[in-house]
Amino acid sequence: MIKPLLAALGLAVVSASALAAPEDIVKKSGCLACHQVDKKVVGPSYKEVAAKYKGKKADAQLFDKVRKGGGGVWGPIPMIPHTPQQISDADLKTVITWILAQ
């Protein structure tokens, strides 16, 4: 009942994850176990990723990489696949946008 009323008023209902800060999402999703903003851990830093893909439309490519995992781009240690149960599509898109803006 509330959603139709809000829609009639021209207001959108926003999910809680859409309001989450990217930093909170990477903490909640376990990304920080292998990545940090400005230093290499197991995988590259987010700043290294941003620099590598600067000026390129890499959103879909990175989304695919996180979902499927894989190796060879950043060294011999492969990234494990991450399911929608680990990080939702919406949260993953938010995080990728944030990473590429580093």
TrEMBL record:
Binding site for heme c: C31, H35, M79
Entry keyword Transport: yes
Record GO terms (molecular function): electron transfer activity; heme binding; iron ion binding
Domain of life: Bacteria
Alphabetized PROSITE patterns for the sequence: CYTC
Name of the protein described by the UniProt record: High-potential cytochrome c8
Domain Cytochrome c: start-end pairs: 17-102
Keyword field: Electron transport, Heme, Iron, Metal-binding, Signal, Transport
PTM remark: Binds 1 heme c group covalently per subunit.
InterPro entries noted in UniProt: Cyt_c-like_dom, Cyt_c-like_dom_sf, Cyt_c_ID
Span of the signal peptide: 1-20
